[in-house]
Design goal:
Length: 472
């Protein structure tokens, strides 16, 4: 067994490996030993062909790239594995670099982990401004990668930050960009480490305030979040210290709901008193944002009020906000909104001149994978009628268009039979014209293209009818 010593860089290993291959030294005869890292680590950044003019060694480009990546993987056997794969491939055993081979699969697994770590560095590095260099801002950042990826990852930031210079410090090395040249220092000079770790600046404080105010507890999914942004990076992110608190607040909110549900599901002795007697006297909420008339508010981002001019003569009622409406706080902003917008235009109307609202003001949904799936409102329609009636009293429209069965149920205080009974007819509702038509999401949902066109035409026809009722 011979001990082979080199400087610990990929370029150094490549030089030595080439000589060993030329002397036909088998992997099991070598023990690899590294000396402290030299600071020419950027020599590793470009995978170079293994052959030289004087060398007969040939290795595929793809292997050189894989070796270059895998060389950054921190593992006591990294140089031994790299040499074993190279040795086998050079001797004609191409399988050594394939995923089906034990060595090949290990090499690829390492390369993949390194690629991921490079992505982490690109995604989770946070520069802070620390003074100026040649009249331009100078930025610094601290990062703790799990593998030796700085040399491969740092060039990404060159020429991406205008004329600014920057420094990326890690526990092992530092990369410095002065606006023209990238240099790597290993180990990281102590002064640079301290500079990169220095406390927050105003930009970070602003970013933290923004992060906290836009964090949506209804959408927080700790598992997905930690999958994308491993916890080990939190401590170096300005928003990192906020995340545990924000997540735990989101979790306790969810747990409270879950506990309340399980209590209500417990069987118990029935006490024969009327509901009216046992109900505590509570003031009804006076604003839509504070509405607790049904439980939908607990899982919605916000209540979605109607919108439009207060003197609108045409009043359109949908069913309930969907995912997009719930996030944006405005009715008909998602796919159904686009169908409706098109129908409004084709009917010769303008969205801005109409009042658009929903029978139910909070989004009712159930989780489906990572999505929130719409659930048709039922018992929520009656309590929410309060808000619809308020809007009708305020706007006092001449014509109401009920888009679908939920809107009609809300107006009629009972479930309508079939929608087709009302379609295409102009009726009266409490002294106003009422037209009933399909909901725009029905147009999206209905199978067959012909039926879809028919439903869209019926929606447009209803809006044309409404427009004609308004004409002098
Ligand atoms: N569907 C509705 O009924 N209303 C909206 O606001 C969006 C989709």
């Amino acid at each position: 067994m011979r001990t082979v010593s080199f400087d610990g860089s990929f370029a150094g290993w490549r030089r030595v490996a080439r000589q060993l291959l030329e002397q036909d030294i088998a992997p099991h005869e070598i023990s690899w030993q590294t000396e402290p890292l030299s600071n020419d680590l950027f020599a590793t950044a470009d995978a170079q062909p293994l052959e030289t003019a004087s060398s007969t060694i040939r290795a595929p480009r793809q292997l050189a790239d894989l070796l270059n990546l895998a060389a950054c993987y921190r593992h006591p056997q990294r140089w031994a594995l790299l040499y074993r794969v190279l040795w086998r491939v050079v001797r004609g055993d191409q399988a050594a670099m394939l995923a089906g081979d034990e060595d090949g699969s290990e090499l690829r697994r390492w390369a993949k982990a390194v690629r991921r770590e490079i992505h982490h560095l690109h995604a989770f590095l946070r520069f802070k401004q620390r003074g100026e260099h040649a009249g331009n801002p100078h930025y610094v950042a601290w990062h703790e990668p799990a593998h030796d990826v700085l040399a491969l990852a740092a060039p990404h930031f060159c020429n991406r930050m205008g004329n600014s210079s920057w420094l990326i410090a890690t526990p092992e090395a530092a990369a410095l960009w002065d606006g023209k040249t990238l240099t790597l220092e290993a180990p990281c000079p102590t002064g640079l480490e301290a500079l990169a770790k220095q406390q927050r600046d105003d930009g970070e404080r602003l970013w933290m305030a923004y992060y906290a105010s836009t964090f949506n507890p209804a959408r927080a999914n700790p598992k997905v979040m930690t999958g994308h942004m491993p916890r080990r990076f939190w401590k170096d992110l300005p928003e990192g210290p906020l995340i545990p608190t924000l997540l735990s607040e989101a979790r306790t909110g969810t747990q409270r709901t879950a506990q309340a549900k399980s209590v209500s599901e417990q069987t118990g002795k029935t006490v024969p008193v009327s509901a009216a007697e046992v109900l505590p006297v509570r003031e009804q909420p006076s604003t839509l944002e504070t509405c607790r008339r049904c439980p939908l508010w607990q899982r919605a981002t916000q209540a979605v009020p109607g919108e439009g001019p207060l003197n609108a003569r045409l009043f359109l009622i949908g069913e309930q906000p969907g995912d997009q409406e719930d996030l944006q706080g405005r009715p008909f902003m998602g796919p159904a909104g686009q169908v409706l917008d098109r129908a409004i235009r084709e009917a010769g109307l303008q969205r801005e001149s109409l009042y658009l609202t929903n029978a139910v003001k909070h989004f009712k949904w159930t989780p489906q994978g990572r999505r929130r799936k719409h659930v048709t409102p039922t018992v929520e329609i009656a309590p929410c009628r309060h808000w619809l009636e308020n809007e009708l009293d305020t706007i006092k429209p001449d014509v109401i268009v009920a888009l679908g069965a939920t809107a009609l149920e809300s107006l009629m205080h009972r479930k309508p039979g079939s929608l087709s009974e009302y379609m295409g007819r102009v009726t009266q509702w409490q002294g106003r014209w009422l037209i009933v038509t399909y909901h725009p999401s029905y147009v999206l949902r209905v199978p067959e293209e012909a039926r879809q066109r028919q439903a869209q035409a019926a929606l447009i026809a209803a809006l044309v009818q409404a427009r004609q009722l308004l004409e002098p």
